Amino acid sequence: MLAKVSKNIFLYASQNKALNTVAKKWGLKFGASQVVAGVNIESAINQVQRLNEKGLLCTLDHLGEFVSSREDALEATVCNTRTLEAIAKAGVNSNLSVKMTQLGLDIDRDFCVQNMHRILDTAKYHNNFVRIDMEDYSHCQITLDILKELRETYTNVGTVIQAYLFRAEQDVKELKGIPLRLVKGAYKESSKVAYQEKEKVDENYMRIIEEHLLSGSYTAIATHDHHIISKVKDFVQKNEINRDQFEFQMLYGFRTEMQVSLVQEGYKTRVYIPFGDDWFGYFMRRLAERPQNISFALRGFFLK
Ligand code: FDA
């Protein structure tokens, strides 16, 4: 009951534009620095370097919420191309993750696609890869349509499929050959489109992981769930799937010891690193997802 109330409070805070705007002026607070790698690209690149030294690969995500003007979307596009340039200049091992609503998807589809072209051209020039994060259900079909369109020109782009959606298995079949990040799914979705019970989500998650791996496609398994990770290890061993065909992914600041031990066991492991001054919404969503994360916030609150 208490967990549900706190979840709703954090989700409400994450969606509150005024709070998000005020938080931009604060700098990272309340322990957010444990899950957000700084407010600028320099600090994010430093974290990439530090993680690379431990054998971890990275993906950078420039945080941005409530993009409702072309100006904001263009600014986000430039931030993303600059991030790709900074990765190349520093010679670190990281690709890029983007959200298309940040690039103007809700403003004008064609404008958003143009912005994606700018980012993908820069990525191609630097021989890098861009992952389109999957947002809520209302953006799912349009994201997949744009991805398929972009794949006609670029091979350095992939997306994410959410196991809680009934449609996930069919989507994975249709996207055979395309690099996919597979996740359980982070948004609150209706029972008309998504499984609501954890067991069913987990079951579907393993189903789509197995489907994509067996089709020979490159698969990123993005989870902190050690039960799933252990099942994946067994599955790849049993089916003689090469370790070059998949990677594990986890969020920055989560299960850091497990991230390193996966590398030590010889598994490719990538850390998703969010950065930027628009950190508040992301931080609130992480607190909503897992009440235990509140200890981050409390620790940060007392330390600052
Ligand atoms: P889940 O939260 O179901 O936890 C299962 C079990 O794992 C827990 O009961 C606990 O035992 C253990 N566990 C989990 N977290 C732990 C922790 N911090 N410490 C100790 N034990 C822990 N979603 C989306 O909709 N679109 C997207 O594009 C992405 N992208 C993305 C990238 C990356 C790299 C990750 C890791 C995740 C995403 N997600 C996402 C989020 C994803 O959909 C999902 O909401 C979260 O990862 C939470 O689900 P998990 O699979 O991690 O385990």
UniProtKB/TrEMBL annotation:
Entries under PANTHER family matching the protein: PROLINE DEHYDROGENASE 1, MITOCHONDRIAL (PTHR13914:SF0), PROLINE OXIDASE (PTHR13914)
SUPFAM superfamilies attached to this UniProt entry: FAD-linked oxidoreductase
Keyword Flavoprotein (UniProt): yes
Enzyme Commission number(s) from the entry: 1.5.5.2
Signal peptide (residue range): none
Cofactor binding annotation: Binds 1 FAD per subunit.
Gene Ontology terms describing biological process: L-proline catabolic process to L-glutamate
Known cofactor(s): FAD
InterPro entries noted in UniProt: FAD-linked_oxidoreductase-like (IPR029041), PRODH_bac_arc (IPR008219), Proline_DH_dom (IPR002872), Proline_oxidase (IPR015659)
Record-listed substrate binding positions: K99, R285, R286
Chain sites annotated for binding FAD: M134, Q162, K184, G185, A186, K198, T223, H224
Protein species of origin: Domibacillus mangrovi
Swiss-Prot/TrEMBL catalytic activity: L-proline + a quinone = (S)-1-pyrroline-5-carboxylate + a quinol + H(+)
Keywords per UniProt: FAD, Flavoprotein, Nucleotide-binding, Oxidoreductase, Proline metabolism
Name under which the protein is recorded: proline dehydrogenase
Organism phylogeny: Bacteria, Bacillati, Bacillota, Bacilli, Bacillales
GO molecular function list: nucleotide binding; proline dehydrogenase activity
